[in-house]
Design goal:
- A 4-stranded parallel β-sheet has the order 1-3-5-6. A two-stranded parallel sheet has the order 2-4.
- It has helices at 13-26, 43-58, 70-78, and strands spanning 2-6, 10-11, 30-34, 40-41, 63-66, 86-87.
- It is of the alpha/beta class.
- It has a single domain (2-87), classed as Transcription Regulator spoIIAA (2-Layer Sandwich), CATH 3.30.750.
Length: 89
Amino acid sequence: MSATLELSEVLDLKAAGPLNEQLLALQGQALILDASKVQRIGGLCLQVLIAAQAAWRADNNDFSVAQPSPEFDAGWTLFAAPPLNCVAT
């Protein structure tokens, strides 16, 4: 079974706590993050997503990003973060 989580348009400091809670609620199953609407990503949310990807890998569950917006990709690149598993859907 796979779950999909639509990411907020603004992933800033205020969004980090709720994002972490949403991810924790979905742990234990394959997860697809819909990043199509992301307009801005901050460092703390980026760290939450990196940690989530590591947790999903440790649990041997799929973790991927679908339809990353240009802003999501640019923000990810700007932070020189490790690549996420992106899929085109």
